[in-house]
Amino acid sequence: DIQVTQSPSSLSASVGDRVTFTCRASQTIGSYLNWYQLKPGKVPKLLIYAASSLQSGVPSRFSGSGSGTDFTLTISSLQPEDFATYYCQQSYTAPFTFGPGTKVDI
Amino acid sequence: QLQLQESGPGLVKPSETLSLTCTVSGGSISSSTHYWGWIRQPPGKGLEWIGNIYYSGDTYYSSSLKSRLTISLDTSKNQFSLKLSSVTAADTAVYYCARQARATITTAFGVDVWGQGTTVTVSS
Predict the structure, then answer these.
(1) What tens digit of pLDDT does each residue of A41-94 get?
(2) Between chains, do A96 and B100 touch, taking CB under 8 Å as contact?
(3) Which of A100, B3, B61, B106 could form a disulfide with B66 if both were Cys (CB 3.0 to 4.6 A apart)?
(4) Which DSSP symbol is given to A98?
(5) What is the mean pLDDT of each run of 10 residues along chain B (124 residues)?
(6) Strand (E) positions, chain B?
(7) CB proximity under 8 Å: B 84-103 to A
(8) For chain A, which residues lie within 8 Å of any Cβ of chain B, measuring from their own Cβ?
């Protein structure tokens, strides 16, 4: 199975900050990497698919980059509603494993 | 607009079988462009991918669960189901049904449609 790791596991930030998270796959996965936002009691939300494609309806302050084994998610200017946990998922080959998440708090 | 809705018991006894059904509305489960699957989140933990099924019936399972797992389709009812046998407290979680876009025969894009999630507790 492809293992997916994320760093950091948590970070503290302020409104307006630019924040970047990292996701790393244990083998090359091309661009088959997705990012999700999860808030307590809410349904996960797809932010980015195929490493850099913005899901419809997602604000443009979210962006993704990378290919191969190393990927990043960037929030250009953190908003109050962005405090959440962010997960990456590889969808190159089943099982489509998730990373352990990065929690963003104030 | 496509919607997914999970249904099934909220409480399952240890060693028994957890059974959930996902009803698809606003679209067909016989789509060749999507996988249908299950994802769970145990309390206080992260997301765990359980498995997918394609309209052809091909299934893809988590390595850690595949010995206990069956995912199936019922195209006549536009539903798909999960059965997880021999459950323990470690299977307590919020279970989501989900749609994931198929990219190629082995790859996919993101999970773009989620059910609301159903909490399943394993306890005697």
Answers:
(1) 999 999 999 999 999 999 999 999 999 999 999 999 999 999 999 999 999 999
(2) yes
(3) B61
(4) B
(5) 96 98 96 95 97 95 97 96 98 98 93 98 97
(6) 3-7, 11-12, 18-25, 34-41, 48-54, 59-61, 69-74, 79-84, 93-102, 108-114, 118-122
(7) 96, 100-101, 103
(8) 1, 30, 32, 34-36, 38, 43-44, 46, 48-50, 55, 85, 87, 89, 91-101
